[in-house]
Amino acid sequence: MRIFAVIAIFCIAALTSSCSQTTGYLSGNRYETHRSYIPTMHTQAPIPTAASQVYGNRRNSLVPPRPLSAPSTPAPAPNCAAVCVIDPRTGNVLYGHNMHERRQVASTQKIITALCACDVGELDRMMTITRQDKVSVTPIRSRLQVGESYTRGAIMHAMLTASCNDLAQALARDSAGSVERFVQRMNARARRMRMYNSHFVNPSGLPGPQYSTAYDMALAACYAYTNPVIRDFINDTQVILTRPNGQPVAFNNTNKLLSHSWVQGMKTGYTNAAKRCLISCGSVNGRAVIVVILGCEKRRIWAESEKYLRWALGL
Questions:
Q1: Beta strands 287-296 and 80-86: pairing type?
Q2: 126-128/93-97 β-pairing
Q3: Could you tell me the domains of the chain?
Q4: 8 A C-beta contact, residue 165 and residue 204
Q5: Is 265 exposed, middle or buried (0-12, 13-18, 19+ CB in 10 A)?
Q6: 218: part of which helix (H) or strand (E)?
C-alpha cells in the first residue's frame, strides 16, 4: 500500500508541475487567451524545489535570442539603497548592491499583480468599479467612476501605465473574488518564481507589513518581460479608455525612460517608506537587460536606472 501511495503522490506532483500559465494577447479590441510556457500556481501548497527556470522556457519568442556579454568596465557606483542588474535570458546577475536586503518596493509590486491577473486570464471579461475599490488607495487613483464597466485587460493596462492604486484593488477583487484571496495568490506565485525573500499584503504596493528585495523583484521582472500582454502594456506611453458615456479617459505612463527607443518600460514606484523605485528594461541587438533600483532619491532615479542599463548593454 505504501508503494501505491508513493506512486500516486509522484503522479500528482508531476501533473502539478506541468501546468502552464494562461495569458492573453490583444487582438483588435478583444483580449484572447492562449497557453504559454510559464508555470502557474494558485494554491497555498508548498512550492516544489524542482521548479522550472525562473525566467520561463526559452521557446517563448519574447526571450532575448542572445545572452548579455560581460561588460568591459566595472559597474558604476550606486546612489540608491539597492540595485540588481539581471539578464532575462539566462537569469545571470551582472551586478548587485544590497540586492537581498528586504525593503518595501512600492508600486513596482504591481508587476506581480499583473502576472496573477494573467494567470486567471479572461482579459476580455467585463468588470465593474465598486466603492470598495476606491477605499484607502490614495494618493494615486484613477478618474474611473464607481459603476463603470471595462474589460479586465483594459483595467490592467491602465494600472500598469499610470500606476493607479484603485485599479490594482479592482483587478485583484475581480480576479480572485476578494483582495485577500488575490494576495494569497501573489505570495504563492512569488514562491513559484523563487522570490523567497518577499511577502505581500496588498496588490498596490501601498505601505504595509510587506517587503521584497531588488533580486526578488528582478526575478518577477524576468517573468513579466516574457509575458506577451505585460510586455505590450509596459511599453505604452499612454492608454485611452472609453467611458460608458463615450468620453475618453487618458492614462499617461509614469516612466520617463520610455523616451529612449531602446527602453521597453516596466514599472515605477514611490512611497515615503520605499522612496523612489524603478524596474526598467532595455534591449540592443538581441540582448536585453533588466535593472531594479530601490530606495532612490527623486532627483536621481531616472539617471540611476539609465546608467546601469547603458553599462550592461555597452551603450
A1: antiparallel
A2: unpaired
A3: 17-41+50-313 (3.40.710.10)
A4: yes
A5: buried
A6: helix 214-225
Coil, helix or strand at residue 314: coil
- Quote the cell numbers at residue 298: 527623486
Instruction: Output phi, psi for 293, to 5 deg.
Output: -120, 125
DSSP code at position 30: E
Q: Which residues contact 1 (CB under 8 A, 6 or more apart)?
A: none
Helices in 147-213 by DSSP H: which ranges? Answer: 152-162, 165-176, 179-192
Q: Is the dihedral of CA 165, 167, 173, 175 positive or negative?
A: negative
Q: Any bridge partners for residue 35, and if so which?
A: 22
| Per-residue cell: 260 | 529612449
How would you write the pLDDT of the chain (315 residues) with one tens digit per residue?
A: 444 444 444 443 433 333 333 333 332 233 333 323 233 332 332 333 323 343 444 456 777 777 777 888 999 999 999 999 999 888 899 999 999 999 999 999 999 999 999 998 889 999 999 998 888 777 777 889 899 999 999 999 999 999 999 999 999 999 999 999 999 999 999 999 999 999 999 999 999 999 999 999 999 999 999 898 999 899 899 999 998 889 999 999 989 999 999 999 999 999 999 999 999 999 998 899 999 999 999 999 999 999 999 999 998
Give the global pTM: 0.80
C-beta neighbour count of 95 within 10 angstroms: 18
Cα 283 from Cα 218, distance rounded (Å):
16
Rounded Cα distance between 20 and 60, Å, is 12
Q: Which residue has the cell 532627483?
A: 299
SS3 84: strand
The x, y and z cell numbers of residue 270, run together, are 514611490
Query: Which cell numbers in the block locate residue 314?
Result: 555597452
Give me the DSSP letters along 233-294.
Answer: HHT-SEEEEE-TTS-EEEEE---GGGGSTTEEEEEEEEETTTEEEEEEEEEETTEEEEEEEE
